[in-house]
Design goal:
The chain is built from three helices and six strands; from the N terminus they run βαβββααββ. The chain is of the alpha+beta class and 137 residues long. A six-stranded mixed beta sheet has the order 2-5-4-3-1-6.
């Protein structure tokens, strides 16, 4: 099983370049068979640009999670604190192998009636079989 995450272009760039090795989430998907994230780069790009394997899922209080992940956060402490403001639980996906697509994919070509998710969207693996081979930029 894969999950599609909407990620802002600046963060996508940092993931693809290896600067950002953790993707932070306020809410986490409940299925535990999710092993891969499809990266939907939000507007103005509006395309699927690659995928990454989930190496580990961390859950902690935001202050402790920051201490554990700050070296690979790709964001400032101020941004992190603003994102998790008022939360007592925070999640971080440790990014494993990253596979950028050779060309960006219109998600509507893959998923009928696609609308970018606010949090996440499950995607059956067979729906993305056209993108199985690692495609490097």
């Amino acid at each position: 099983m894969r999950v599609l995450l909407s990620i802002k272009p600046v963060h996508v760039e940092n993931i693809l370049s290896g600067v950002k090795t953790f993707e932070f989430r306020r809410k986490l998907f409940t299925r535990r068979d999710v092993k891969t994230v499809l990266i939907y780069c939000t507007r103005p790009v509006g395309r699927l640009v690659g995928e990454f394997d989930i190496a580990e899922i961390l859950k902690d209080h935001p202050d402790r999670l920051w201490l554990r992940t700050r070296g690979g956060s790709g964001i400032s402490k101020e941004y992190f604190d603003g994102y998790f403001c008022g939360r007592t639980e925070a999640y971080a996906l440790k990014i494993g192998e990253v596979r950028p697509f050779a060309s960006h994919v219109d998600p509507s070509d893959l998923l009928e009636n696609f609308s970018p998710p606010q949090s996440f969207m499950y995607v059956e693996k067979q729906r993305t079989s056209a993108f199985e081979q690692p495609r490097l930029l």
